[in-house]
Amino acid sequence: MAGSVTTRKQNSKCRTKVKTGCTTCRIRKVKCDEKRPFCLRCVNTGRACDGYESPFRIFPSQPSRSSHSGDSSSAVDLQPVQPVQPPIIEITPQDIDLLNRCFSTKTILDVELGCDAEARQALQASLTDPSIRHAISSLRALREDFETSGDDPASVAPPTPGYHYGLQQYSMALGGLTSKMSSPGSDRLKSALLCCQIFISIEQVQKNYAAMIQHIIQGLRIMHEYRARPYFATVNRLIPAHHDQLPLLDVFVIKVFAAPCKFADTSTTADTSVTTLPPHQQPVESRNFRAIAPDMRTELTRIATSSLEFLSKVSQVESVGIGFQLLSDKAALLASLDSWLIDLEHVQTETEYPRPEPISVSFLRLFHLILKIVLLGALDSSPDLDAKLRIENDRLQGLANIVDERAKAYTTCSGTSHGRGERPTVR
């Protein structure tokens, strides 16, 4: 008898703790089938499935200015955390306009994003959610520092206290959200998507495009797994949204990418052998390509506008018949995206533009992939959908990594020259 007890204890010690699975199964210490958005073990036993751990993690900060300050420890030697200001009692139009402006660096050029509703929702939630409040404080501080310090690496001073404060608030927001997502609660999804929206803007203002895309992918994955919109479970069965009050992150991302960009009049590469030539001496191919590239963006923006209209209809669909019509609209939009990509490749082939391609075109490719991922997940729950989305997400992240490296290399090579090439941050 004593031997069997000892054996059981030894076996229990040798078991590997499972760190995956839904929160409910982990608390019950039973094996989870990890179906999403809700595991079948909980559903079949009549239990409420509390979902899975947070997909967010704290990304290593990559402050672009610290590499030019001459002090390698400045990025981690942070100032004491300033106390967070008490939440505002009344959200004013000025507060909404300020946050809307902070969502993208494009607004430096007086571009209208049309994200007032998103700003109002985030500000309202920040009154009771510390993670969102920290995220907004971070975005405001980093955006103010960006506008004050400028975008020229040769003129960059050591990181300011405001910049340090912004990074601290960002870290606190990430930590708070990670803790919140690991515990049950219906409000955690809303908090995650609102924070994700702000995190995207934070990474953009720091020019960390790879991390920005990571947040986009994670946010879209949450929307898909928890069914923020109605979808077809089978051919003739339309299921209402599981969480119809979730923030629509896909709409926010499309708005940010679709907003007008500043296109350069000269070459957009960092190759000084090209950028130093006056326009009349530059190769005919590059001039032709720059003349066509804005037209490529115009068509992609048109598809994006149609996609926003489509997503709005999906959110309101109530009948199978209308759902079938929307599936037809979805197929047409995906076909338009395929045609756009073929046209872009044709333009590059015809103009024989030197590689690597302009950063502005790489951002168009990012936008194209984001639209495709959003549309693929709409109204669909087919068995092979997850595999398709995984492939496209990997492509999107791979392209973002390339853009991130090229943008940083461009900033380093651009020196003190002004008006030469494009500003990768204005996207």
UniProtKB/TrEMBL annotation:
<keyword id="KW-0805">Transcription regulation</keyword>
<keyword id="KW-0539">Nucleus</keyword>
<dbReference type="InterPro" id="IPR036864">
    <property type="entry name" value="Zn2-C6_fun-type_DNA-bd_sf"/>
</dbReference>
<dbReference type="GO" id="GO:0000981">
    <property type="term" value="F:DNA-binding transcription factor activity, RNA polymerase II-specific"/>
</dbReference>
<feature type="domain" description="Zn(2)-C6 fungal-type">
    <location>
        <begin position="21"/>
        <end position="49"/>
    </location>
</feature>
<protein>
    <recommendedName>
        <fullName>Zn(2)-C6 fungal-type domain-containing protein</fullName>
    </recommendedName>
</protein>
<feature type="region of interest" description="Disordered">
    <location>
        <begin position="60"/>
        <end position="79"/>
    </location>
</feature>
<dbReference type="GO" id="GO:0003677">
    <property type="term" value="F:DNA binding"/>
</dbReference>
<keyword id="KW-0479">Metal-binding</keyword>
<keyword id="KW-0238">DNA-binding</keyword>
<keyword id="KW-0804">Transcription</keyword>
<dbReference type="InterPro" id="IPR052360">
    <property type="entry name" value="Transcr_Regulatory_Proteins"/>
</dbReference>
<dbReference type="InterPro" id="IPR001138">
    <property type="entry name" value="Zn2Cys6_DnaBD"/>
</dbReference>
<feature type="compositionally biased region" description="Low complexity">
    <location>
        <begin position="61"/>
        <end position="79"/>
    </location>
</feature>
<keyword id="KW-0862">Zinc</keyword>
<dbReference type="Pfam" id="PF00172">
    <property type="entry name" value="Zn_clus"/>
</dbReference>
<dbReference type="GO" id="GO:0008270">
    <property type="term" value="F:zinc ion binding"/>
</dbReference>
